[in-house]
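In this section we walk through a basic example: taking a raw amino acid sequence and producing a predicted 3D structure, encoded as discrete structure tokens. The instruction is simple. Fold the sequence below.
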Amino acid sequence: MPRSSSGQPNSHTLDEIEPEPATDAPVADKAPPADPQFAQYNFFTALEAYGPIACRPHDRMRLSFSYNWLADGFIDTLSGLPINPIYVRDTWGFELYYNIEINKWLHLTPDLQPVKNEFKGDNMAIIPGIPMVMDF
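The resulting token sequence is shown next.
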């Protein structure tokens, strides 16, 4: 039991004990950024055609493009990390797909997506896909 300066034991009820000051309070250099957005601007555009082939009027085809300009604060935060800094760049990608209506409730959609991710030094990724959707 803790003792007072006179050597007598201190006795306090729980109500009388004041809590210790918080030691895990945020520090200015550890505070999150004021604007946590990773993208400054986003752009998306698409061109879609319904029934691009005369004998297949329910098929669809689309070509789309997107571009994301990363926010300077986001880039500075990641590249300024004291351990393992991350160097990033703007991202972009295309998508080309053709939606084949096999019947009214079954669609097959082969697609191809060239994408440039945010990590500097990475090569462009080519992502093929062929989802099948069943409508009930």
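Looking at the output, two observations stand out. The mean pLDDT is 81. The chain has one domain: 32-134. In the next section we compare this with other chains.
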